[in-house]
Amino acid sequence: MKRIEKLFIEMIKIQDTDEVLQFMAISGTCSGIGTLNKRNKEYHYEGDDLETWSFFVGDQLKRSILLGKTLPEKFVHGFG
Question: Which residues lie across from 46 on neighbouring strands?
Answer without folding.
Answer: 33
